[in-house]
Amino acid sequence: MVWSYIKVVAPANYPGTVYKGKYCLEHHYVWWRETNELVPKDFVIHHKNHNRADNRFENLEMMTRGDHAKHHARPKPMKAVVCAFCTKEYSVELRNWKSKTKHGQKEFHCTRSCSVKNQHRKAIEKKNTRPYRGVLQSG
User: Fold this and answer.
1) Domain shared by 56 and 107, yes or no
2) What is the pTM of this model?
3) Distance (Å, rounded) from C-alpha 101 to C-alpha 105?
4) Is the dihedral of CA 3, 46, 67, 77 positive or negative?
């Protein structure tokens, strides 16, 4: 269900944004009336009980846009994996794990440092196990 915020007729002395020449958002008006300050550009008024129709001042809180987005963000599904180098268990986002395994990645690392150390270890193991290809010189 999509519905917008409640608009009220703005008083003549209201310095905030006015829509269609006479309306303002009720929660912005209530905030201005109680604090005597307008909502700055990078801030929003959050309804604490998540009910947009409840515009009591006690239910309103000013937040940055970023904090407001984090507050309403859904938790991301995670997948537990084990680091291929240090065997530490850690979590990655499920969508990233699916994408990487779909494209052939078999090993995961908890840090970039573990990834580099694991590559170095594999290079040494490969060097020590490959057959000698040089020309033998007889003495």
Assistant:
1) no
2) 0.59
3) 5
4) negative
